[in-house]
């Protein structure tokens, strides 16, 4: 947990603020320092970016961050207070979260993990904040414990929207691979175009798992990033820790769905969690339903059929018997004809199935090769962006410290 700031260290004047020497956080191209508004004496976190060290792409990111934060008003998102620039610096003044970040908080706890109840409380606040972003058509794209700040009452404040961007609600895909490797969805790791909100959900799932188990979902303790870890990440095959309850396993099965289109949404997660907290029950979801409602197994249809077949059990007259025999003959004749047609159709369809199966096999083999080569390139290549390398380091330090 962060210590109380020493106001005597506020020594530099920037705009209408006195700024401290103490660094609250540091990113690729900026430092975050404690600042105090001269007139109001209110404390803020000031992100200070040196202009001479910036590239053109950094200007774009800063512009996006400011624009997106302006439109996001939520109690669990860090609020933007002011933006100004001097000859040397661009300064973004934001709400100051006094409780440090989730990464530090986890490290301060016994075994570097939380109880399921406490982890769910924090997770729900993250969900509400990210759901608000998605409703405003904004994706974060760099969700990790270091970017989850806490106030003095341990309430969530999501920060660092440097990689955030808007998306079209019509289903348009994003293409820029960004964020931290340990928290990235598999579609980003293999370089595919992706659904922004689905990628955020995956990252939230990694944070929740780490909060409960003390290690990442795809790494065993002190394992680091290896080929086995890559394979687990790409397949969604998370480690079933004994610390996970049956409900948590159910939740992670929905979150770590490799197909982004089938992955549960923030809304679906909130519905399942709220229902579980009220009733302590949960159900297997329907393939067409994201809210955790149960599926009809089809047994009731069989019961109805059997009951219908036993309805007419009373004796019948001779005329009724003759009529039923003639109708049976007609039905049997027509059924034989229909069976012949069905056989002919089945024969042709089986051929088509065989050919389609062979095509799928050859395609999947090719896809598997591409996934392996692309994923290893993204994770291990020295030419990857510094942010991803930073993600590898943070994943390693998290696993070692926990």
CA-based gyration radius: 29 Å
Q: Could you say which overall geometry the principal axes of the C-alpha atoms support?
A: globular
Question: For the record, what is the CATH homologous superfamily label of the largest domain?
Answer: Transferase(Phosphotransferase) domain 1
Largest sheet: 6 strands, antiparallel
Number of discrete helical segments: 11
Q: Output the structural class.
A: alpha+beta
Helical residues, percent = 40-55%
Order of helices and strands: EEEEHEEHHEEEEHHHHHHHH
* Broad CATH class of the largest domain: Mainly Alpha
CATH architecture grouping of the largest domain: Orthogonal Bundle
When the domains are counted, the total is 2
The fraction of residues in strands falls at 5-15%
Task: Note poorly predicted spans.
Answer: 286-318, 348-402
Number of beta strands: 10
Describe the overall structure:
The protein has 402 residues and is of the alpha+beta class. 47% of the residues lie in helices and 13% in strands. The protein has helices at residues 56-70, 102-108, 116-135, 186-189, 196-213, 227-235, 246-255, 266-279, 299-309, 318-380, 386-401, and strands at residues 10-14, 17-26, 31-37, 43-50, 80-85, 89-95, 138-139, 148-150, 156-158, 165-166. Strand 3 (31-37) and strand 4 form a beta hairpin. Helix 3 (116-135) packs antiparallel against helix 5, helix 3 packs antiparallel against helix 8 and helix 6 runs antiparallel to helix 10 (318-380). The longest helix is centred in the C-terminal third of the chain and has 63 residues, at 318-380.
